[in-house]
Amino acid sequence: MIKVLMLPSWYRYKRNPSAGIFILNQAKALARTGEADVTLLNWGQNQFQLRIRDPLHSLGALKGRVFSRRDTRILETGLTELCIPHLTWTSRFLKGNIERLANKVNLDFTPDIIHAHVAFPAGYLAMLLSQKLGVPYIITEHSGPFPFPEFVSSRGVSPLVLEPLREAARIVSVSSFLRQEIKSKTGLDSLVIPNSLDTSLFQPGNPAPSDGKFRLFCLSGLNVEKGATDLLQALKIASQMNTDFHLNWGGQGKLQKDMPRLLEQYGLEGRVTLLGGLKPESTVSYYQGCDCFVMPSRLESFSMVVLEAMACGKPIIATNCGGPRDLLCNECGILVPKQNPLALAKAIARMRQKHGDYSQEKIRQRCLENYSHEVVGERLIELYLQVLSRLP
Q1: Cis-peptide, bond into residue 121, ω within 30° of zero
Q2: Would the pLDDT of 392 be above 70?
Q3: What integer pLDDT is reported at residue 391 of this predicted model?
Q4: Average pLDDT of the segment spanning 350-367
Q5: What is the DSSP string of 104-171?
Q6: Domains of the chain, with CATH numbers?
Q7: pLDDT of residue 45
């Protein structure tokens, strides 16, 4: 049994239960192999983070930290959550207080390997704990863009990102696109192992009776970077092409308050239903009930929402913005240029006519064969064994 200490850079809490959910899913995937005993470190990555531009959140973080204590919870067989509440802040000041956290992490066991997600803060913490405990660590990188803007200056990539990547026993990228980005920015190579998905939760279902309209579903941040304005323009063009559709749109973001006005401006009233933020388990029925899933983002290192739609057997229209290149094939949907509303509109019109030609079984099978917990979990176990076999 391999003892794994997993360090997420983002983690869920009451106000944001979806934060870092893909990392929690990977921990579950590992535990369910029966070959790993996983301890997931929760230091309040989001919950206790002080933010200069969000004083209300910062006050809540300070208050919450005062009343929080170290705790251990069994999430499921082979998976434990270790809570060590700790205040953090921007990496630009005292390295975000991560070095103090390393001193607070006192374990009642010695892991065989440390697995961090994203170079900073988790990778930097992994580097410090590796030195402290004398065990190897690996980093799975998810950042999109890589690296995040706060870690780039005129002098290049910040040491907060470079040092942990250089010292890691292996670097993992979640897509071939991200592997290329890391190589071009740092000169370091990485192994591609994608995120995994709970395919027992996301699976095909019985769609609601059709009303004759083409039913689209989008689950995306309501901001420019996630392609919200591109999708609005595409929908306007599609409606001008006499494409009959209705879009259920889940998500939150900077444009959320402006969306009713924007829908009116683009002539889309009655054609789009805004769902707001959705919990993962609440999204399944929307995937199952749509004819096609649409993902308009301008940059994705992976794309969990595309994977979720595939698991439900739905054809997909996605932008060629990075990660989706690995996920989609011709049997799964249509890949269109990013930031191109006309191409997106044409794909919607085409899918309106052809969505019935896609095989639900083939789309789901591609997901099962490449991205299920079982498949990804075993690939990670194989990587751990390779790293551990190289030790003296």
Answers
A1: yes
A2: no
A3: 66
A4: 95
A5: H---SS--SEEEEESIIIIIHHHHHHHHHHT--EEEEE--SSSS-GGGEETTEE-HHHHHHHHHSSEE
A6: 2-196+372-389 (3.40.50.2000), 214-370 (3.40.50.2000)
A7: 94
